[in-house]
Amino acid sequence: MNRETGVEAAPQWYLVQSKPRQAERAEVNLVQQGYSVFHPQLMVERIRRGRRVVVEESLFPNYLFIRLRRWVDNWYPLRSTRGVARLVSFGREPLPVQDAMIAEIQRRLDARPAQSDLCPGQKVEIIEGPFRGLEAIFKVHQGERRAQLLIELLHRQVTLTIPIADIRRSA
User: Fold this and answer.
1) Which residue, 2, 93, 104, 138, could crosslink 118 as a Cys pair with Cβ 3.0–4.6 Å?
2) Residue 97 carries which DSSP code?
3) DSSP code of residue 61
4) What is the pLDDT of residue 67?
């Protein structure tokens, strides 16, 4: 209940800053305490020890969202939760994040193209862009949305990087 109006407060999203490189720890500990947490993450290709690996990374490093009711939920445990640095505030008041913004972040994460199932050496056809209609050989993924291809141009094999959406498997 709101102290001033006596009305039950609706839950809202707030921004939590984690300690450096401890967002996952903060998320786990907050969930164990019964809080609703949203920690947007992406699958990203990285080079580790000379190998290309796909890892999950935070969309907003060292930040996550927590759903709380202003005058109802106990906010005091947040300060002592392992991995949590602070609740982001302006002055002394934490600023709520609009539900529409959280929904838009979730929608965009869900709309990301899935990692294609193309394999190195596989023949593909370019279906969009200036090289449309050419056949190529899939070489490697270049991040989430791009692919590196080998095409024959002027009797030489040339490496080309284009969006994955612009290619399809050859029949």
Assistant:
1) 138
2) B
3) T
4) 95
Angle, alpha carbons 33-90-96 (nearest 5°)? 50
CA 99, 101, 104 angle in degrees (round to 5)? 110
> What is the four-CA torsion angle of 28, 98, 7, 88, rounded to 10 degrees?
50
Name 168's bridge partners. Answer: 125
Q: Give burial (CB, 10 Å; 0-12/13-18/19+) of 140.
A: middle
| Average per-residue pLDDT for the chain | 85
> Phi and psi (nearest 5°) for 27?
-60, -50
Average pLDDT over residues 27-54: 84
Measure the CA–CA gap between 63 and 151, rounded to whole angstroms. Answer: 42
